[in-house]
Amino acid sequence: VQLVESGGGSVQAGGSLTLSCSASELSVSHYCMAWLRQVPGEEREGVASIDRGEDIMYADSMEGRFTISQDNAKNILYLQMNGLRPEDTGMYYCAADQWPVGLTPKYAYWGQGTQVTVSS
User: Tell me, what's the pLDDT at 89?
Assistant: First the structure.
């Protein structure tokens, strides 16, 4: 299983970014998929999850600004991030699991991460 993230970068507060996660050897439509964020010295925290393309969850601070989605034909997971804030800064990881893990960090499969930096 391989998860490869892309789309991170540096933006000013209020800006937008779209993260992508390309999956190999698993079908995103058959897994619970998620985006998690980590900042130095802290544990990974869930940002958004989507379970088999249906049940969607967001962290409270992201709801209304971030949108998780997936393209089953391309086998890609996305995270559209609008209204970015400096506190959204961190390494964003794509994750997958056969079980409905939700926003916890207990995923079996992880990507290498993509850095998002938001300046004020």
Answer: 98
